[in-house]
Amino acid sequence: MRSDLIVVGGGAAGMMAAGRAAELGCSVCLVEKNDRLGRKLRITGKGRCNVTNHCTAREVVEAVPSNGRFLFGALSAFPPEETMRFFEGLGVPLKTERGNRVFPVSDQAADIVDALSAYVRRGGCRVLHGEVRELLLREGRLEGVRLSSGEELHAPAVLVACGGLSYPATGSTGDGYRLARQAGHTVTGLRPSLVPLVEQGHDCAELTGLSLRNIGLSVWDTRRKREVYTDFGELLFTHFGLSGPVILSASSHLRDMEPGRYEVRIDLKPALSPEQLDARLLRDFAENRNRDFANSLGALLPRKLIPVAVRRSGIPPTCKCNAVTRQMREHFLSLLKCFSVPIEGFRPIAEAIVTAGGVDVKEVNPKTMESKLLPGLFFAGEVLDVDAYTGGFNLQIAFATGRAAAGAVASGKGLTEKGGHSHEGNCN
What we know:
Layout (H helix, E strand, L loop, with lengths): L4 E4 L3 H12 L4 E5 L19 E2 L3 H6 L9 H6 L2 H10 L4 E3 L4 E4 L4 H14 L3 E4 L2 E7 L2 E7 L4 E3 L3 E3 L14 H8 L8 E3 L3 E3 L3 H4 L4 E11 L4 E12 L3 E3 L1 H7 L10 E6 L6 H14 L18 H8 L12 H12 L1 E8 L7 E3 L20 E3 L13 H19 L1 H4 L12
Helix pairs in contact: 1-5, 1-12, 9-11
């Protein structure tokens, strides 16, 4: 069976593109390797699906550490407000939370997946469950794809939207990079983004399971001697190091990672200035003047953190509070305002929320998402070398790029702008 467009990957970008192309009159074949669509989308946002960020297109671009300008056209054509209008039009009411993060009112990612799946099927898209092995290339022309089963699917346009390398259990195993390389594309260095960090040391393992809310966080680049990130929020100590929302966000800023280059600095008492915290310490020590230092911190720190803090302070655990000197107290105060954790590296890319790196955007038309190397080949979503901070930005990019590719295929502009052949089939 011949189609106007073959979409490889039934995730956020793929479903949006397939549904939109069908809506615009194209015959579409969507190929998904899993037994159901949107498998990775179902687990995003801890199962709640942070579907977008309620901000402007420009603010989304600003949330992309590299190659953000490449996305400006697609995001301007389909900004977050349009994404919100789209899903509410499909019957999914949305709500906006802290940081302008947008979620379904139900807090169920399945509602987003079901809405997109219905959008795809309502347009008459043919959905196949199979794995695309390679592009069909004959005499330098794209003619479709070949599945692992050997079956050939024919179309003058193919959209690669099968994600990156993160969460491989959901089907993101790097297939899109293989297809891109077959077409001659450059795939930039792949690395984890929005990922937990591994400690260079052992203190975090001792604190495993401890969650700290409302902490201040900064990341120091020891090579360049400068601060590269600051945040406020929740952090989790794990057996390997650090995780939690502020850590995932911070990881996007840590470029050229190497052991010991970065140091996470945690302000355990961000609501108190150094002067206020010193006054607090003086009061606590006065109230516990005859108690051991190690036994006087229960009102100040979580129980699990006390042994590590005492050890780092250098103050003998059995030192009576009335014997703590001013110098000791100042050192302890500094520790509370800057609890440092040297970083060994990232956790494996399979544990990352998104993959950084991908198809080099210099080889892709930013208006249409079409390859500049092979007419008829398009890319959308995580397979591209664009990754954003946490907060709904990455899904917004997937929706906007998928939408841009679908519009280009439907209008025929993707192939005709460079003087190439026009699409066969009905895409009017």
